[in-house]
């Protein structure tokens, strides 16, 4: 079977739920338990896995997707995390464009122009960022000053209705004036971000928030796998930040 069709088949909810149910039922019999109870448990577990996988950040397939990868001196791990995200959260009909900072663009100005050019050929449905970040900025380049602070010229007209941005760096959703909130206000779309640091993992359950990370998990930051994820230290799903109402800007203290 063609690999692409295999990937699409593996994403089917019914197939996964059925396989999960059969596995649970057989395990129940092996352990001397009840097949029906095991089948029900396995089905629910599989369904929960799918929900956590696609909707921990409001995710799922969405049309035109732009993946921005920060300048990556960390053994290419941000690139690998972006590739994993593409495999898991986009579908055959999606238009997916990956921008690798330091390779495809050399400055914040070039990055913003690239995103604007992409939007001029069809509005964007989702942007996902994989790279270093903090409370006040996305550190898209390693050169000092080449960061995104939400002062850049983001335009709501670049995005389709219901579009969103997902930030997989550290601490982008921490604080009242977080970079996630500022980007939501500037771009006029929902922004999802972690409220803690994040780390690399090749553990599927950690990558899909199916178990809480331990100190050993965080310290190990394993990346020896075909697929790796950037997952939060606190084990919590992303928080959504929505644009403030227009009158919020009247108070200069808010900026």
Largest sheet, in brief, is:
6 strands, mixed
Number of strands: 10
Which H/E pattern describes the elements?
Answer: HHHEHEHEEEEHEEHHEE
The helix tally amounts to 8
* Sequence stretches where pLDDT stays below 50 over 5 or more residues: 1-14, 24-31, 37-61
CATH architecture term of the largest domain: 3-Layer(aba) Sandwich
Structural class designation: alpha/beta
Number of domains: 2
CATH topology-level name of the largest domain: Rossmann fold
Euclidean distance between termini CA atoms:
55 Å
The CATH first-level class of the largest domain comes to Alpha Beta
Task: Record keyword descriptors for this entry.
255 residues, alpha/beta, Rossmann fold, 2 domains, two-stranded antiparallel sheet, 8 helices, 10 strands
Layout: helices, strands, pairs:
Layout: H1 3-10, H2 13-30, H3 35-55, E1 64-69, H4 77-89, E2 95-100, H5 108-120, E3 124-130, E4 132-133, E5 138-139, E6 159-167, H6 179-187, E7 190-193, E8 198-201, H7 204-207, H8 215-220, E9 229-232, E10 239-241
Parallel strand pairs: 1-2, 1-3, 3-6, 6-7
Antiparallel strand pairs: 4-5, 7-10, 8-9
Helix pairs in contact: 2-3
Give a quick summary of the entry.
By secondary structure, the protein is an alpha/beta fold. It has two domains: 3-52, no CATH class; 60-254, Rossmann fold (3-Layer(aba) Sandwich), CATH 3.40.50. The protein has helices spanning 3-10, 13-30, 35-55, 77-89, 108-120, 179-187, 204-207, 215-220; strands at residues 64-69, 95-100, 124-130, 132-133, 138-139, 159-167, 190-193, 198-201, 229-232, 239-241.
């Amino acid at each position: 079977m063609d690999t692409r069709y295999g990937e699409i088949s593996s994403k089917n909810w019914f197939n996964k739920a059925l396989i999960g149910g059969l596995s649970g039922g057989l395990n129940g019999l092996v352990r001397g338990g009840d097949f029906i109870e095991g089948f029900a448990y396995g089905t629910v577990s599989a369904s929960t896995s799918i929900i956590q996988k696609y909707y921990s950040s409001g995710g799922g397939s969405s049309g035109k997707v732009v993946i921005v990868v920060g300048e990556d001196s960390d053994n290419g791990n941000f690139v690998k995390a972006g590739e994993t995200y593409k495999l898991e959260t986009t579908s055959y009909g999606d238009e997916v464009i990956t921008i690798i900072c330091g390779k495809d663009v050399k400055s914040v100005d070039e990055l913003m122009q690239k995103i604007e050019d992409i939007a001029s050929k069809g509005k964007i449905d989702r942007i996902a960022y994989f790279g270093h970040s903090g409370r006040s900025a996305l550190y898209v380049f390693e050169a000092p000053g080449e960061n995104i602070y939400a002062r850049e010229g983001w335009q709501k007209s670049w995005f389709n209705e219901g579009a969103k941005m997902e930030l997989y760096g550290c601490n982008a959703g921490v604080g009242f004036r977080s970079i996630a909130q500022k980007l939501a206000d500037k771009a006029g779309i929902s922004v999802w971000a972690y409220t803690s640091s994040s780390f690399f993992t090749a553990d599927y359950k950690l990558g899909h928030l199916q178990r809480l990370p331990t100190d050993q998990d965080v310290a190990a930051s394993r990346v020896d796998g075909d697929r790796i994820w950037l997952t939060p230290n606190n084990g919590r799903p992303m928080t959504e930040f929505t644009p403030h109402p227009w009158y919020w800007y009247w108070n200069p203290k808010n900026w």
